[in-house]
């Protein structure tokens, strides 16, 4: 994408920053919308992250 040098913002770590912040939200149980139960242990998660990681 072309842009003027003074108005261009580059996000070189965007993907890793998004995952880091989603994990921080999950660990604080913020915006989690699904619970997974494994061997009687509960794990809160974000549906969108689970869907993005699913096998095709």
From TrEMBL:
It is found in: Nucleus. Keywords: Metal-binding, Nucleus, Repeat, Zinc, Zinc-finger. Transmembrane segments: none annotated. GO terms for molecular function: DNA-binding transcription factor activity, RNA polymerase II-specific; RNA polymerase II cis-regulatory region sequence-specific DNA binding. Residues 22-53 form the BTB domain. This is BTB domain-containing protein. It comes from Sinocyclocheilus grahami.
């Amino acid at each position: 994408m072309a842009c003027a040098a003074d108005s261009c913002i580059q996000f070189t770590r965007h993907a890793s920053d998004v995952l880091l912040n989603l994990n921080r939200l999950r660990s604080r149980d913020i915006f989690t919308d699904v619970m997974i139960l494994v061997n009687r242990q509960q794990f809160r998660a974000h549906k969108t992250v689970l869907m993005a990681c699913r096998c095709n």
